[in-house]
C-alpha cells in the first residue's frame, strides 16, 4: 500500500475492493429509536410539545446552556435566532459567502440585508480579519458558520462583536458537539442555531434547535413562531401585551417523531462522533506528507475538534501536483471506487438573489430594498470565496474505526496524488463552476 500500483483510471485494480456501506451508514438507528418513534405515532402525539420540551431541556443541558428551543427545521432556527437578536428592517448581518444558504437568507424576510465576508482559506470559516471594515451602524449581527465541521476562530470574532456591541449567531449545522479551544461550538456566541436534518451529523429528521443563555433572545423567537408557548409565562415586558398570536405569522413547532428520536440519539451522540473522529483522524494521519493533500481539521491538542465531521472535505494544493486540476484528481480517485468530487458550496454573493431579484415587490432588488446603501457584491469582490472550489474536494465520511477498510480509501487518494504526472496529459482543467447545485444561477 504505497500508492504505486497502476491507476484504476488506466486499467489498474481499484484501491477500494468492494463498496462498504456499513462504514458510511448514518444515522445509526436501533430498536430504541424505532420504539420511541412508534410510541409517538401510537399516542397520536405528533403535534404536541411535551416530548419536544424534554428534548430541548436535555439538549441544552448537554451543552450546559440555559435555554433550548426546537424548530421544525434548521432554517427556521436561524430565522428565530435572527429575530431573537433584534435583526429587523434596514439592518445588516455579516455572514460568510461560502456556506449553505440558510445561514443568511432568512434575514431578507425580516427586512434586513446580508453583507458577505471572506472565509479563511485554512479553516474555511468566516475570516476574523474581514469583518470589522464591513460593520456599519446598521450591523446587528455576525453569523459564524462552523463550516464542514471546522470550528471558526471565535475569540477574535467575539472581541470585534463586543467592541461594536453586535450579536454573534453561531450556525452549528455542520458541527454539533464540536469544540473550539475546549468550549462547545454553539455556546460561545449569543445564540447557537442548527439543523438536525437527517443528513447532518446530529440527525433526527426534519428539525432544528437553538441554544442560548439569553432570555430575551429565547422569548423573542418564541413570540415569532411558537404560538401556543407565547402565553402568560413570557417574562420580557414588551412581549407580554401581544401574547396569543405568533408575531411573525410563522409556525415553528418540531414534529415529535423528530424530538423523540432526538432524545435517543443524544444519549449516544458523543460516543458515536468519538468513533467518527478517530476514523477521520486516522485517515488524515495516513495521508500525512502526501503532496497536494492537506487535512481540513484543527491542530491536535488545540482543544478544538471537528464534531461529527459533517460533509468532510480536504484541502488541495495543485502547485504541488504540477498544476493538476482538482477535477482531474477527483476523477482518478473516483475510478479507484471512492465516491467524491471537487468543490464545496458556491459563494452566495454571486447568486441573483444577492444582485437583482425583487422578492417582495419593493420595485427594487430585495438586497437593497430597505438598505441605506448599495450592498451588492459583484464578481471579484470576494476572491478567496470565489476561488476556493478549485482547492477543496469531498472525502469519505467514515462512521466506524475500521482501519483495514479505511486503508483502502487512503490508498485511493495516495495513488492519485503520487501519480499526478500521468494524470496531467488529459487534464482539461476545472469547469467554470465547481460544486454546489447545478440549478444555482450565478450572475455573470
Ligand atoms: C442544513 C443547514 C442549514 C439549514 O437546516 P435545515 O434543517 O435544512 O433547514 C443551515 N445552515 C447550514 C450551514 C446547513 O448546512
From TrEMBL:
PTM sites of type N6-(pyridoxal phosphate)lysine:
200
Q: Name one GO biological process term.
A: polysaccharide biosynthetic process
Q: Which GO terms describe its molecular function?
A: pyridoxal phosphate binding; transaminase activity
Domain of life according to the entry? Bacteria
Active site annotated at which positions?
200
| Keyword Endoplasmic reticulum in record | no
What InterPro entries would the database entry show?
DegT/StrS_aminotransferase, PyrdxlP-dep_Trfase, PyrdxlP-dep_Trfase_major, PyrdxlP-dep_Trfase_small
Q: Name one Pfam family in it.
A: DegT_DnrJ_EryC1
Q: What keywords are assigned to this protein?
A: Aminotransferase, Pyridoxal phosphate, Transferase
Q: Has keyword Transferase? A: yes
Q: Which family does it belong to?
A: Belongs to the DegT/DnrJ/EryC1 family.
What protein name does the entry list? Answer: DegT/DnrJ/EryC1/StrS family aminotransferase
Q: To which species is this protein native?
A: Paenibacillus hemerocallicola
Taxonomic path = Bacteria, Bacillati, Bacillota, Bacilli, Bacillales
